[in-house]
Every structure is written in structure tokens, then in C-alpha cells.
Specification:
CATH architecture of the largest domain: 3-Layer(aba) Sandwich
Shape: globular
CATH class of the largest domain: Alpha Beta
Distance between the termini: 73 Å
Number of helices: 15
Structural class: alpha/beta
Bound molecules: fe (iii) ion
Order of helices and strands: HEHEHEHEHEEHHHEHHEEHHHHH
């Protein structure tokens, strides 16, 4: 009897240590991903452990942990960090027909080290009462002296701005973009501060006429339970820049399997699930982001903003040019 019990415990122990699990280091806030992961666990029986933190801190942690890292997936909310993780040799290439079918090539690493899971556009918002859409055209035009002291934007340390400048570098070249950045800085209504929501609030109270923000922040405020947020968001309107040219700048949230992963197979399957129709629909509805797949509908608020032309630049370029973009913004005095 004693031997039988011992054997049983040994077997159970072995079972537990081989139980299917995926460990995620996520720069995405828990509330914006956890419900989806719970659904996945329900369907697959695979346990998903989530550790959330700031992207740079998680990347540092991966570096320090090296081959001993428990992480299987790194999830970030911008392409710049995914690129950085790949450069630091922290990610592994993933070979998956499903991922390459579900995710357009411009929204994944050229060698499949990372994959976009949702899209977000960086748009112009403007004060409805005092600005009209006809006054607006492109990102470039934000540097026009007519907007002197009328523009709000967050700091150049923010990766969304860095990615936008990286995209402009590809399209316009360094000299033009530097001139633009100087013009934009001259047009700022205040020294850069706060997040994208704060820029929207600043437009709402008349501190500035225009701001650069990601789409889901505006959608989040419009659908907020906090009345002041809804009211502020209702004072601004969204403008899709560069529609007669290259299209609006698009960034991503995305993920890559870590090089050190002990559960590469499970991690790949979870990525495939996240690129699937059910998960994409959840993202689109709950986070007010755009799906990476064109066959999945967007939320009602996003629908109300209509269709738009997106820049078709391969997003890997944004990561490659990040350091140049940061230096340029610094030279231009963008704080
Ligand atoms: Fe964000």
C-alpha cells in the first residue's frame, strides 16, 4: 500500500511538472488581456501565467534571466520594443502557417520573430468648436506656423511618437523630418507632458487646438464610465491624416516567443489563438483596437470613424530606425 501511494505521488508530481503552461511577460495591462487568456485556458486546458510590467523592465528582466527565464512569450504594445527584444537576441523565430496566414506580412517580423496582434492608428484630434476638418491635412502640416502655440503632444520619450517619427524618416528623409520636428516644437502650446488621454483633455479645455493621439485612447474615453472623460472626448473630433498620400501611421500590439522558452509549442499555439477570429473580435470590441485581420469587424465607435488608408510600411522598419528617431527628436528640442 505504502509503495502504491508513493508511486501515485511520484506520478502526480511528474504530471504536474509537465502540465501544459505558458508564461507571459506582458507590457499590456492585465485588464486588457487577461479575460482573453482565461478563455483560452478554458478551451485548451493550458494554464497561462501573466506577469505584467513596463516593457523596458520586462526586456531587462529577460536579459538578466537569460536561459533561465521562465517567460515563454513577450507581449508589448508597440513594435519598437519587439524589435529591441529581437536585437537583444531574446526572441525565437516561429514557423506557423496559421500565423503567416492570419497576420499580413507588414505586421510581422520579416523572419517571424514577432507578430502583431492588434493595430492602433496615431491620429490628429481637434477642437470641434474652433477647428474644422478642412483646416487639416497631414502630420507634416502640424508644423505650419498657422498652428503656433496650438498643438499638444506627449514627450519624445514616448515610443508612439518615436515610431511615428521613424515612419516619417522612411518616407521623407532626415532633413525634412528634422525641419518638421523643429516646426512642431515651435507650435507646441505647452511643454510635452502626460499621456495621450491628457492631450485630449487639453484640447477639450482649450489649452490647445490639436493633438496627436492613438485611436483607442479616444474610443476609451468616449465609452468611459467617468462622465468627465466622455465630456472631454465629445469636445474633440478625429482626423485621419495623410489620406491623400501614404496613409495614417499605424502601430501595433504584438508578441514574440522567447528564445529561452521551455514551452515553445504551447506559446506558438497561444499566439495562433490570439490571431484567430474569436480573439481578434474580443480585442476589437474591448480594447477599441483594430484587428490585424480584415475579416473581423471593429467596435461601434471605431465604425463611426469610418474607413481609412493606413501606411503600408513594413513595421520592422520602425524598430530599425528608432535610435535615429530619438536622436532627431532630441536635436529638434522635442522634450
Ligand atoms: Fe497605449
Amino acid at each position: 500500500m505504502r509503495i502504491c501511494l508513493l508511486l501515485l505521488f511520484t506520478l502526480l508530481g511528474a504530471e504536474a511538472s509537465f502540465a501544459a503552461e505558458v508564461n507571459i511577460y506582458s507590457a499590456r495591462k492585465e485588464a486588457l488581456i487577461k479575460p482573453l487568456l482565461d478563455k483560452y485556458t478554458e478551451q485548451s486546458g493550458v494554464e497561462v501565467n501573466l506577469i505584467t510590467g513596463k516593457a523596458d523592465a520586462l526586456i531587462k528582466r529577460l536579459e538578466l534571466e537569460g536561459v533561465n527565464s521562465p517567460a515563454d512569450l513577450l507581449l508589448t504594445t508597440d513594435v519598437g520594443r519587439l524589435h529591441r527584444a529581437r536585437q537583444l537576441n531574446l526572441l525565437a523565430a516561429v514557423d506557423s502557417a496559421e500565423l503567416t496566414k492570419n497576420i499580413p506580412s507588414i505586421y510581422r517580423d520579416p523572419e517571424n520573430y514577432w507578430f502583431a496582434l492588434s493595430l492602433r492608428s496615431r491620429v490628429i484630434v481637434y477642437a470641434k468648436e474652433t477647428v474644422s476638418a478642412e483646416d487639416l491635412s497631414t502630420y507634416e502640416a502640424l508644423a505650419d506656423p498657422v498652428w503656433k502655440k496650438k498643438v499638444c503632444v506627449r514627450s519624445s520619450s514616448n515610443i508612439y511618437n518615436q515610431s511615428l517619427v521613424s515612419a516619417m524618416l522612411v518616407h521623407l528623409g532626415e532633413a525634412k523630418v528634422e525641419g518638421w520636428a523643429r516646426g512642431l516644437v515651435a507650435n507646441l502650446a505647452r511643454s510635452p507632458k502626460g499621456g495621450d488621454r491628457d492631450q485630449i483633455k487639453a484640447v477639450a479645455i482649450g489649452q490647445c487646438k490639436l493633438a496627436l493621439v492613438n485611436t483607442y485612447y479616444l474610443a476609451g474615453m468616449l465609452s468611459s464610465k467617468i462622465e468627465a472623460e466622455v465630456n472631454a472626448a465629445n469636445k474633440v473630433a478625429l482626423f485621419w491624416p495623410n489620406q491623400n498620400g501614404r496613409g495614417v501611421h499605424v502601430n501595433i500590439s504584438g508578441a514574440g516567443v522567447t528564445r529561452s522558452s521551455m514551452h515553445k509549442e504551447e506559446a506558438r499555439k497561444l499566439l495562433e489563438y490570439l490571431s484567430g477570429a474569436e480573439a481578434q473580435l474580443w480585442y476589437a470590441e474591448n480594447n477599441h483596437e483594430y484587428p490585424v485581420r480584415s475579416d473581423v469587424p471593429v467596435s461601434e465607435i471605431l465604425r463611426s470613424w469610418g474607413d481609412f488608408k493606413a501606411d503600408d510600411l513594413a513595421l520592422s522598419r520602425l524598430g530599425e530606425l528608432n535610435a535615429s528617431a530619438v536622436r532627431l527628436m532630441d536635436r529638434a528640442g522635442w522634450k
